[in-house]
Amino acid sequence: MEFRFSQKEEKLREDVRNFARAETAGREIVSGMEEESRDEDWGFAMSMSKKLAQKGWLTMAWPKEYGGQGASFFEQHVYIDEASYWGIPGTTMGVSGIGWVGPSLMIFGSEEQRKKYLPSIAAGEPDGVWCTGYSEPNAGSDVANIQTNAIREGDHYILNGQKIWTSCAHRARWCWLAARTDPNASKKQHGISLIILDMKSPGITIKPIVNYAGIHIFNELFFDNVKVPVMNLVGTENRGWYHLMQSLAFERHSFAPQFYGKGRRALEFMVKFCNEIRYNGKPLAVNAVTRHKLAERAIELETLKMFGYEITWKMSKGLIPVYEAARNKAYCDFVMQRLAITGTEIIGAYSQVDINYKWSKLMANFTRLYMMFPGLALAGGTGEVQKNIVGQFKLGLPRAY
Amino acid sequence: MDFDLNEQQNMLKTMAHDFLINECPKTRVRELEKDAKGYDTSIWSKMVELGWLGLIFPEQYNGTGADFLDLVVLMEEMGRNILPGPFFSTVALCALPILKFGTETQRRKYLVPIADGKNIWSLALSEKSGKFEVSDINTVASFDDKHYVINGEKWFVPFAHVADYLIVACRTGRLKSADEGITLLIVRTKSRGVTINVIPSIAGDGLCRVRFKNVKAGRLDVLGKVGKGWKVINYLAQRATVLKCAEVSGACQAVLDMTQAYAKDRKQFDKPIGAFMAIQHKLVDMLTDVEGLQYMVYYSAWLLSTGAKADMYVSMAKAKANDVYQRVCIDGIKIHGAIGFTLDHDIGCYFRRVKAAEFVLGDTDMHLDKVAAGIGL
Question: Of B171, B202, B227, which one is at a domain's C-terminal end?
Fold first, then answer.
């Protein structure tokens, strides 16, 4: 039992902190996926991606030959935690590329694909921005139900169909796409393939979906006879389902340090707020109900921290966490929901207001968190899907769906 | 960073697990709940032979020289199986502070018989409020040139009725600040003026009311410094709280395991009930609670073992332990259905102990308040 980070890892935390202080001064808003929404936010995020790449942090755990630093999982953990704490935008570049396209290509992509696609992600280039096309109108939690067809004609696939809830499609250079390459397969999980789609291909229509908070993250994608070279197939044709499961696991690995970092910052803001704001002549901080609510949130965040450590530790031992990642995803949703609700409750009526007021940036964080958490909770699979995974793979229970 | 137990801890864990399953089945736990002593003297003797009583004492006090994390692992196993008895009161509440604050004479005199299984100890701390607050300590020890004379009443003193010695938290001076004016006195339970009554409790776990009427203690019976007893209490409270949390963590794992097994076995509508999402997701929530608690306990125990400031994390672990133990038992019973509501089912043995653990060394509200202070409120 030893929960200390190494000196090297602590030094890295220090470096990320200094970088964040210098580069994000005055931008107190905890970043989320909304950096994809407004052009100026996106521009700033991409400029930060570039700088993070120059620091060697953006894809630090990747091997050097693909633009990484060969850093340890613990170093990556510290970087994600600290960068999330400071809300450094651009750490994910539209999520997909760094999160799972890169790691997946390193496992089941061809050497040619690795050489072609990984360096631009690692360099923080606009060319390294990816989106992911899994969900369809009739393939949500039941993602094996996808209907988008990629029918082979000579050395091309002809793509027809529709994707939905595609984050970042309006910014992406490439799409990590799941499509049906064998419509006559005996099981719906068979006959699916993973394909790299050039978003500049003719025949693609992108239609924005604006969420209830007024933020543009999602899109619908329509494919009308889009030609994709067969060399863009990733892994084995018709085995895409299994590749996809692996990619989804990568997606869930970094949730805990990411949300722990964000949550830690949000809680510190709240503590500061409660120590300064007075009600009936006393600071909010002496109110027992307020104290207990924030104490409970702190305990939940520290539990999340430990869950994050556990996964990183297991990965560092060469294990592939499966149920742990699903558990963490479901727990993150729970923690963020409670934090958003507590934060807005304590701020009170002002949590609805977006005005030029001393606390408005802090309050906007909670308002933003509050408006975003129901949506974020769906990313990477719903809480119910996560719990099904844990039930089956950890508790050994029968399939419940 | 490393979540693994070391080789010695793994051996201890396996040995404790096997020993407790064989020696203390739930039929015996139920009998002991009704037993006058409340513990099994033959199991106790075997625990002495295994070296558990002196596990973390240096060899010069007949101990085995293991460390605090080893004791955490052992307590986790005791909680998993349920081991009724005065182990926690003797080792966690009394031996740890004697080891740290006792004079060399006191250590020799008291620790050796503890390691040899000859003496049982307990801590007389809480009073009528049942809370863990310095301001609630009203038992007075006045000094008459030769002796301290103790008058007052202590409540919820674990296993005082079988103890040989008590450490009694007394007020010896006017309260200046929280840690001034409290003195800890070592008192033989056979001393004139000590009256001990067992409180009938849900778990039948030997909680006692102890009355002191003109009970005498000498200068050499002071543990730590006169007037500085609260410092000793804080020291022992941190460690004993983590050990109590480890016990609860083990108990929660046992409740989860039996509920998981039941959900696989019990069939309704032609399926194991664990195949129904409503049941399965409840089990997953239990797992998340149980694993989270275990890691929080390990983290706070590890922090303490490094000598780092750990009070906030200790309070986090206790607040979480209180919360998780209760929820896991309630959900576990619900998943079992009516069978879980019977005296014969093991899950009830755990549920009967939820409140026993909850109020040891501070309730949830007290610990949440400490966490609030820890995060800067």
Answer: B227
